[in-house]
Write a structure and sequence with these properties.
Blueprint: H1 5-15, H2 19-24, E1 33-36, H3 43-48, E2 54-56, E3 63-66, H4 76-79, E4 83-85, E5 104-107, H5 114-123, E6 128-132, H6 139-149, E7 154-157, H7 161-168, E8 172-178, H8 191-196, H9 199-218, E9 220-230, H10 239-248, E10 252-260, E11 270-277, H11 298-307, E12 315-319, E13 322-326, E14 338-341, E15 343-349, E16 352-355, H12 357-362, E17 371-374, H13 380-385, E18 390-391, E19 397-403, E20 406-414, E21 417-420
Parallel strand pairs: 5-6, 5-8, 6-7, 8-9, 17-19
Antiparallel strand pairs: 1-3, 1-4, 2-3, 7-14, 9-11, 10-11, 12-13, 13-15, 15-16, 18-21, 19-20, 20-21
Helix pairs in contact: 7-9
């Protein structure tokens, strides 16, 4: 592996006697991790499936190292959102936020969704998560991952930090910034990351990081927590950014700062810093008054009565034919680019309601009157994920198709046939 000379020189200065051990770690195999979605399955039940050899990740209660021979991305439980594939070091960040139920949380640089999905598990369908990604090319993957995880009180936005700061000043209890960085932590598993790296890129990233940590901090309430992280090792993008920020913000208190080095742990390495906002000079909380549209959602309520065992309450918002359930006390986002605002329930068509794939992943199997549940080792979960119809003996209308009682998606049953409603763009080919 041909590592850049400037990188090696910097690591010698930072690591001193540990430098040789650090370089030797580049000969180790990359580590692989999965994190259980506790919104859908508990830890014991998941482990009882015995999918492969799993070993606990020390800093993440829900995270496990897995055998690299296990194809974690090609399993119906992954499609059902029972777990998320994530680099083990990256799982160290969200626990620093100390998320409590009903917190308002911002994931400022969210794609592809590792930290946002983890935050969702901690919120447990309460509070608000704003999941933002500035790069339009990466927003689709973020949306798909959050949908699969069963996102409810989540707003997905596509904006720069300054635009968000104008709307959300003083709004959030917790902010996480997994900052754009020069990506030195990717060197071991990605040859392109080495070729793409330069010291000029370090300085370019540093300028971006200065702005987003400032804007992220301004969006915190008094006593709120900001966690800044990167997957790079350069001092310029880590300690220097924090030191400069603390000098400029005397009301910010450093709680914890740590590095995970690949020669000391099983992982690619990470930097994370936890800061508390002790001042609150201009905190502003804006509440959004949503128009009551309950009279206009009769078809949804009829669907709910006929096919669900639960009733969904909250603020309903109609955008054209699309019906959303929006978090309470949410600011006006009309000046922001928003991919999704809350839980997409489905489409109100003439005299009928068609449930969304998002709703299927939010609901539990016990929430739905008609379910078709398949064992993981049967052929039917993969048949469904491929978009095939499945023969039954009933005509129940909307049915939630599940694997081991974890929802995969909707089907409509008529004359003994389950007509597949799994989204065509998500259908698998394996």
């Amino acid at each position: 592996m041909n590592l850049p000379d400037k990188f090696l020189d910097d690591m010698r200065i930072i690591l001193k006697d540990e430098f040789d051990d650090f370089i030797k770690s580049y000969k180790d195999k990359k580590t692989s991790g999965i994190r259980i979605n506790t919104l859908k399955i508990d830890k014991k039940t998941f482990l009882d499936f015995n999918l492969c050899e799993l070993n606990q990740i020390p800093w993440c209660e829900e995270g496990f190292y897995y055998d690299g021979n296990f194809n974690a991305g090609k399993n119906p439980l992954h499609d059902a959102g029972a777990y998320y594939i994530q680099e083990p070091s990256a799982m160290s960040v969200v626990p620093l936020l100390d998320i409590k139920e009903n917190d308002k949380v911002l994931d400022l640089c969210a794609s592809p969704g590792g930290k946002s999905t983890y935050i969702l598990s901690k919120l447990n369908n309460t509070g608000v998560l704003v999941s933002n990604e500035i790069n339009p090319g990466r927003i689709k993957a973020l949306g798909e991952n959050l949908e699969r995880f069963g996102a409810k009180n989540t707003i997905i936005t596509n904006n720069d930090s300054k635009s968000l700061e104008k709307v959300f000043k003083g709004y959030f209890d917790k902010v996480v910034i997994d900052a754009p960085c020069s990506g030195q932590g990717m060197f071991r598993k990605d040859e392109f990351a080495i070729k793409d790296w330069s010291y000029k890129k370090v300085l370019e990233c540093q300028n971006i990081q200065r702005q987003i940590i400032k804007d992220g901090y301004n969006m915190l309430k008094k006593d709120g927590i900001l966690v800044y992280s990167t997957c790079t090792f350069s001092k310029e993008e880590n300690e220097d950014i924090i030191e400069e920020f603390l000098k400029e913000n005397l009301g910010a208190k450093l709680i914890e700062m740590k590095r995970l080095w690949p020669h000391k742990i099983k992982g690619e390495g990470h930097f994370a810093c936890k800061i508390k906002k002790c001042d609150d000079e201009e905190s502003i909380t804006r509440n959004l008054k949503l128009k009551d549209i309950t009279k206009n959602i009769k078809d949804y309520r009829e669907f709910e009565s006929e096919f669900l065992n639960v009733g969904l309450d909250g603020n309903f918002e109609l955008k054209g034919e699309n019906l959303y359930l929006v978090p309470n006390n949410f600011p006006d986002t009309k000046n922001l680019k928003v991919l999704r605002r809350g839980l997409f329930l489905g489409t109100l068509k003439k005299n009928r309601f068609e449930p969304s794939h998002s709703l299927s992943h939010y609901l539990k199997s016990s929430d739905v009157k008609n379910i078709e549940n398949f064992k993981l080792d049967s052929k039917y979960p993969l048949d469904y994920l491929r978009g095939n119809t499945i023969n039954t003996s009933k005509s129940r209308g909307w049915v939630l198709v599940c694997v081991e009682n974890i929802p995969l998606g909707w089907a409509k049953e008529s004359n003994g046939v389950l007509k597949n409603h799994y989204p065509k763009g998500l259908r698998i080919k394996y």
